[in-house]
Amino acid sequence: MQGRLQGKAALVTGAFGGIGSAIVRRFLAEGAAVIANDLCGAPPQDLRASGSDSEDRLIAHLADHSKEADVAEMMQQARERFGGLDILVNNAFAAFEDTDIETLREDDWDRTLNACLKGPFLCTKHAVPLMKERGGGSIVSISSVNALRAVSETAYTAAKGGLISMMRLVAADFAEWNIRSNVICPGTVATSASLDYWEQFPAGFAELKRMYPLGRIGEPVDIASYALFLASDESSWVTGTVHAVDGGLMAGTKLSVR
Ligand SMILES: NC(=O)c1ccc[n+]([C@@H]2O[C@H](COP(=O)([O-])OP(=O)(O)OC[C@H]3O[C@@H](n4cnc5c(N)ncnc54)[C@H](O)[C@@H]3O)[C@@H](O)[C@H]2O)c1
User: Fold this and answer.
1) Which is nearest to 118 in space by CA: 131, 128, 109?
2) Which of 51, 68, 75, 168 is the least crowded, having the fewest Cβ atoms under 10 Å away?
3) What is this structure's pTM?
């Protein structure tokens, strides 16, 4: 049986982390060739075991998605090894000290915006020419529910909100080349990034979990499955959209008393 991404080449940034590695696993299992990018470290052991021939279709590439020379080199890899690029997933992020606007430090603002917004700008900028050559493509960007309602963390919220606006414009600008651009806004997902943070606040974490109408926080595969749909041709008439994948968080919480 043909995989849903058979014959497609993808670049996933932040691919050694929780959500990124889940996306790489899903993409490999559906037949894609994948450049798994991360800043440092090594891909999780099981990434190469996702399918019988998947080892040939996986390239781990260490690079900083917020440095233009690094990004250009990744695109060169895509061209040389896979003949081009069909799918980009803007997923990488790094967390820095982030507070309300009164106390947020300028260098933490700069570092957060670099990690969460400049990276997607550069990766998208350099992916578009390759996608034009292929007759189209799909860009999936991972934002956050923080961009949809007030939660916390000023710089992260600004970056993730900016990502939605930028990627919506990309959808309009490049629709005539059949390049689609959509955004996923995850709620809390069980990755080390979120679990390490919430470990410090067990009472707050218990309260947070109760806010999710579906009764649980997300798993990386919940986001990966949605990214697969948006990356594949099954969503060929979907562009410029924002999808909350959040266990119903944005729908609101039912009152337990009335
Ligand atoms: N986990 C959650 O609860 C949650 C909720 C909403 C949104 N998100 C979003 O999902 C995405 C993935 O988050 P995660 O929880 O899997 O995080 P994670 O920390 O597990 O993974 C992020 C990865 O990005 C990499 N990275 C950092 N800076 C980089 C750079 N300059 N270049 C390349 N790679 C870099 C990190 O090394 C890491 O492996 C992020 O965009 C995050 O904002 C996560």
Assistant:
1) 109
2) 68
3) 0.97
Tens of pLDDT, residue by residue over 66-109, are 999 999 999 999 999 999 999 999 999 999 999 999 999 999 99
- For 10, 20, 24, 159, 166, the CA distances from 44, given in Å and listed in that order, are 18, 11, 10, 27, 31
pLDDT exceeds 90 at position 53:
no
pLDDT band at 49 (very low <50, low <70, confident <90, very high): low
Atom of ligand 1 nearest to the CA of 90: 41
CA separation for the pair 75, 11 (Å, rounded): 9
Catalytic, out of 8, 67, 156, 226: 156
Using the mean position of ligand 1's atoms as its centre, give its distance from the Cα of residue 192 in Å: 9
Domains for the chain: give ranges and CATH numbers: 9-189+219-243 (3.40.50.720)
Instruction: State yes or no: pLDDT of 51 exceeds 60.
Output: no
How far does the centroid of ligand 1 lie from the alpha carbon of residue 189, in Å? 11
Task: Give residue ranges with CB within 6 A of ligand 1.
Answer: 13-14, 16-20, 37-39, 64-66, 91-94, 115, 119, 142, 144, 186, 188-189, 191-194
Contact 254, 213 (CB under 8 A): yes
CA of 148 to the centre of ligand 1 (A): 18
Helical spans, DSSP H, in 61-102: 68-82
